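Page 42, continued from yesterday. The earlier attempt failed because a stray header line got pasted into the input along with the sequence. Redoing it now with the clean sequence only.
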Amino acid sequence: MELTQKVAGEDPDCDNGDCANVFRTDQPDTIAIQGYLTDLPTPDGEAVVTIPERVLREAARALGW
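This time it went through. Structure tokens are written below.
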């Protein structure tokens, strides 16, 4: 999978300015989320991440939802 466009992000609380982002991908009807890992157990190949609500709202607006 390739990330093709960042549609939201730049969490001001992030130390390096490059976390909690939402991206379009080269896969149809698929977005990718970059966030903060949690300790919730998940199946192999999966992870649960958290992102600030404002980043998710920004992504929804940018995607026209």
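Notes: The first strand starts at residue 3 and ends at 8.
Reminder to self: strip header lines before submitting.
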